[in-house]
Amino acid sequence: MINKRRSPRKASLERCSVELYASSKGPFESRIVNYSDRGLMIEMDHPLTRGEPVKILFRPGAENAQRLGETYCVGMVRWCAPQEGLFSSRYGVGLEMAEASDRRKNFRAA
Q1: CA-CA distances (angstroms) from residue 33 to 15, 16, 22, 29?
Q2: Is residue 4 included in any domain, yes or no?
Q3: What proportions of the chain, in percent to the nearest 5, are helix, strand and coil?
Q4: Could you count the other beta carbons within 10 Å of the beta carbon of residue 59?
Q5: pLDDT at position 107, please?
Q6: How confident is the model at residue 16 (pLDDT cuts 50, 70, 90)?
Q7: Is the pTM of this model over 0.70?
Q8: Domain that residue 41 falls in
Q9: Residue 80 in domain
Q10: Where does the record place the PilZ domain (predicted)?
């Protein structure tokens, strides 16, 4: 199997919340499964649409908040797929995070 990933992933079971820019629904509780310097894989019970912009809110003091120096990140849904299994959420979601400079621009405008 060919690995298409650009950078290595680090496992995580950190809780977070997902806010949708295109909808007044949410925030949705979620959990980070793994992350890299440019992306996150999360699992949640609400499906997301490919290309949808999202804001991920980390709990204060959480590993990703400390790593990024922020309590949130913004990104775009790259994929969303149903998951099987009794101990996971209904959907796995791959997110591509915006660059730090892009995040600052987006939130000044919002």
Answers
A1: 9, 11, 24, 13
A2: no
A3: 15, 40, 45
A4: 13
A5: 40
A6: very high
A7: yes
A8: 10-109
A9: yes
A10: 3-101
Q: In the block, which residue shows the tokens 């894989």?
A: 41
Q: How many CB atoms lie within 10 A of CB 94?
A: 19
State the total domains in the chain: 1
Residue 1 lies in a domain: no
* Amino acid at the residue 106: N
> What are the backbone angles phi and psi of residue 86, rounded to the nearest 5°?
-85, -20
Euclidean distance between the first and final Cα of the chain, in Å?
A: 41
Report the distance separating Cα 78 and Cα 41, nearest Å. Answer: 10
**33: which residues sit within 8 A by CB, 6+ positions away?**
11, 12, 13, 41, 42, 43, 92
Could you tell me the CATH number of the domain that includes residue 67? 2.40.10.220
Residue range 33-90, pLDDT digits in tens:
999 988 999 999 999 999 999 999 988 777 777 777 778 889 999 999 998 875 677 9
Give, for 39, the enclosing helix (H) or strand (E). strand 39-44
